[in-house]
């Protein structure tokens, strides 16, 4: 144990094989990046005397190829951050003030268990007053929803609909292609036309961008479709700056042009699609002139794009579309993804391994979620489900027949809802309730942690076991703990094990298999026999055995086995069975009061609200900004660097204005997600976003937001 104490690590391994025993010499440990990014990189951590000295990309993993983004390459700064929470903390001041005192694990767990037990004991379904709130602070299958799900299922707590990122797009894929499936990312390198639709790949999908650059050097044309002239758009041959929420209109106009110019693969359509005649009729309602007016782009851009895309079919060349999730964060987001996902089948792009579309590959992973999460522990109970997007409203609801019990306790892990959930003034009001008992598992004292009754120190990725899928490639990755937990930090899994024991949910103590299973065992259970765990142990990753061109001969995982242009399942829900343009809740220019459309893409050096507190990254990012076009700035007497109020009926956000060529007229960009406490006036961009939901999937509409901007006094420029 000498190395633990020499390194200042006061906590020895807690359970069997969960943690490593340090050795004296430098060693390299294989791991996986846990963050919400399509790349899911394979990491190598160098450890010297129990201390992680460096994290770098695994050169043996083809997709990572030795390279990491700037954020994760500095991961040791996160693990050893001077502000990291290393001991359990109990609130000692008013909620939101961030005042806490250190307590022991025994005291914290006993009090938390007592409070939750008292709530659950009020009646047969009383545990539904307890709500878990989590998302992708880690994408790991074990430290995400394994032991945590078992705990809440056994308790009978309310269920959480985890929709805050990708629900509309995911549902759009399911209704069209049958699942979150698509072409293999490595074959983009062989494409002759790549349309990057709603993605700043250089910032958010770096390793895909490497494949795109190979294709570009081999003569491929790259086209970026994005309201913002991002770093990626600057590097493409063409940028189409459509208005937010108009992507389906553009896709339908492309279909119109493919039809009228007969740039179709008639055989593929006949053999491998469903609903062609109905889609044809719908598309012919969308001539380029109509779509151009809706999208706010020149007609010529639409006709040229259709010519490029259809020309690949005529020449027998592969054309590929890389979507990302930004385009589906509007009212019509599901329809937009549906419309775009129909395009490859029209020209037979799926015949080529370098053709088709990719939004998410996560549906191709044979994860045994039931083995991890144990839904059988519900024992026939059907707790209500609460949408995480509407947490602001839901925390403020009283008990009613429609809603059920008021939320009296909240357990937050892998998320920072006070910063990232929409309509954040309501989220703050909900978290500030004195009668709400809140427990937060965290690395740092985030905006959400400031409102906790207890903060429990969680391990970082370098300190625990986990196993991962990817939504950008098709390799399974294993994360092995490289170091022992720092301070008194514990993995999420261990915290829920011990909390279950304190609450008596496992009558046999740790002998009960439900809560005694080790993290390594959970990693093995995640894929069962579908993936060779010895391969994962040896090299850190394993490639799924998938076809190069999975839908060259149809075989889509839809009920019909075809690409479903028309969805009977949507029609049965009372929705349009065909994709269509669904206008935004808040259409840009419709309101004289709030005439500007605002989108809030991630700042390049942050990932949602992660890494905001890493000083080197925050210094690079500067301070909270809103990008705006020179015409919009001039009309409001705003100059570059002015402090401005961005506001609507939901609230206001104070930040610096950047007059930028990245913005098109009528659209502004509130780069996020800054912690509220680091904002110029203690708010962030989500003060302005709404809790309205998407057309399908019940997802958020972050990029469906109308605002106005006004200059404020210069005294704001020095306020931190």
Tags for this model:
720 residues; alpha/beta; Phosphorylase Kinase, domain 1; Rossmann fold; Dimethylsulfoxide Reductase, domain 2; 6-stranded mixed β-sheet; 6-stranded mixed barrel; 26 helices; 27 strands; 17% strand; disordered N terminus
What is the gist of this entry?
The protein has 720 residues and is of the alpha/beta class. It has a six-stranded mixed sheet, with helices on one face. The chain has a six-stranded mixed beta barrel with strand order 22-26-23-25-24-27. A five-stranded parallel sheet has the order 10-9-8-12-13.
Descriptive report:
The chain is built from 26 helices and 27 strands. It is an alpha/beta fold and 720 residues long. The strands form seven sheets. Strands 5-4-17-16-15-6 form a six-stranded mixed beta sheet, with helices on one face. The protein is globular, with a radius of gyration of 25 Å. 59% of the residues are buried. Residues 1-16 and 714-720 have low confidence and may be disordered.
């Amino acid at each position: 144990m000498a190395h633990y104490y020499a390194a200042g690590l006061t906590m020895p391994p807690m359970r069997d094989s969960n943690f490593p025993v340090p050795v004296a010499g430098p060693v390299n440990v294989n791991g996986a990046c846990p963050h919400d990014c399509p790349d899911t990189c394979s990491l190598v951590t160098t450890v010297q005397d129990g201390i992680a000295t460096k994290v770098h990309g695994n050169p043996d993993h083809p997709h990572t190829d030795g390279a990491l983004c700037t954020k994760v390459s500095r991961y040791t700064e996160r693990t050893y951050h001077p502000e990291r929470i290393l001991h359990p903390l109990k609130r000692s001041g008013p909620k939101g003030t961030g005042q806490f005192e250190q307590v022991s694990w025994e005291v914290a767990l006993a009090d938390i268990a007592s409070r939750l037990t008292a709530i659950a004991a009020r009646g047969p379904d009383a545990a539904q007053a307890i709500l878990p709130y989590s998302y992708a602070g880690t994408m790991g299958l074990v430290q995400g929803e394994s032991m945590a799900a078992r705990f809440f299922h056994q308790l009978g707590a309310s269920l959480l609909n985890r929709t805050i990122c990708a629900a509309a797009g995911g549902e759009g894929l399911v209704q069209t292609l049958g699942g979150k499936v698509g072409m293999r990312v490595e074959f983009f390198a062989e494409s002759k036309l790549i349309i990057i639709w709603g993605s700043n790949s250089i910032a958010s999908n770096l390793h895909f961008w490497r494949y795109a650059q190979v294709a570009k050097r081999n003569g491929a044309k790259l086209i970026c479709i994005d309201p913002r002239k991002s770093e990626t758009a600057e590097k493409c041959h063409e940028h189409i700056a459509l208005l937010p929420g108009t992507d389906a209109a553009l896709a339908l106009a492309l279909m119109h042009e493919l039809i009228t110019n007969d740039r179709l693969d008639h055989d593929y359509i006949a053999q491998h699609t469903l609903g062609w005649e109905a889609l044809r009729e719908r598309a012919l309602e969308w001539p380029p002139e109509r779509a151009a007016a809706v999208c706010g782009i020149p007609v010529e851009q639409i006709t040229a794009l259709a010519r490029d895309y259809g020309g690949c079919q005529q020449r027998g060349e592969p054309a590929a579309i890389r979507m990302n999730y930004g385009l589906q964060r509007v009212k019509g987001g599901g329809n937009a993804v549906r419309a775009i996902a129909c395009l490859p089948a029209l020209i037979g792009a799926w015949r080529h391994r370098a053709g088709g579309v990719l939004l998410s590959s996560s549906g191709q992973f044979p994860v045994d979620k039931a083995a991890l999460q144990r839904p059988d522990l519900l024992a026939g109970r059907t707790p209500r489900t609460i949408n995480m997007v509407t947490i602001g409203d839901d925390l403020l609801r009283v008990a009613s027949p429609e809603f059920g019990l008021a939320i009296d306790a909240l357990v937050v892990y892998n998320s920072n809802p006070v910063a990232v959930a929409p309509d954040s003034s309501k989220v703050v009001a909900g978290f500030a309730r004195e009668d709400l008992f809140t427990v937060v598992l965290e690395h740092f004292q985030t905006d959400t942690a400031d409102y906790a009754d207890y903060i429990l120190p969680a391990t970082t990725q370098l300190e625990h076991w986990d196993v991962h899928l990817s939504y950008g490639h098709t390799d399974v990755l294993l994360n092995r703990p490289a170091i022992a937990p720092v301070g008194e930090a514990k993995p999420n899994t261990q915290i829920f094990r011990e909390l279950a024991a304190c609450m008596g949910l496992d009558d046999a103590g740790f002998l009960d298999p439900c809560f005694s299973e080790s993290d390594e065992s959970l990693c093995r259970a995640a894929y069962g026999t579908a993936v060779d765990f010895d391969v994962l142990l040896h090299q850190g990753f394993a490639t799924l055995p998938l076809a190069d061109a999975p839908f060259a001969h149809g075989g889509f995982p839809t009920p019909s086995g075809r690409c479903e242009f028309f969805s009977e399942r949507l029609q049965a829900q009372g929705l349009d069975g065909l994709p269509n343009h669904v206008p935004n809740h808040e259409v840009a220019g419709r309101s004289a009061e709030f005439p500007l459309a605002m989108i809030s893409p991630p700042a390049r050096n942050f990932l949602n609200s992660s890494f905001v507190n890493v000083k080197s990254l925050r210094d690079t990012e500067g301070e909270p900004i809103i990008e705006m076009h020179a015409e919009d700035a001039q009309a409001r007497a705003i100059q570059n660097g002015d402090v401005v109020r961005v506001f609507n009926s939901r609230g206001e956000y104070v930040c610096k204005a950047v007059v930028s060529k990245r913005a098109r007229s009528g659209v502004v960009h509130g780069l996020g997600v800054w912690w509220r406490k680091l904002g110029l006036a203690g708010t962030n961009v989500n003060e302005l976003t709404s809790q309205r939901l998407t057309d399908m999937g019940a997802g958020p509409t972050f990029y469906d937001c109308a605002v106005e901007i006004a200059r404020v006094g210069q005294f704001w420029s020095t306020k931190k």
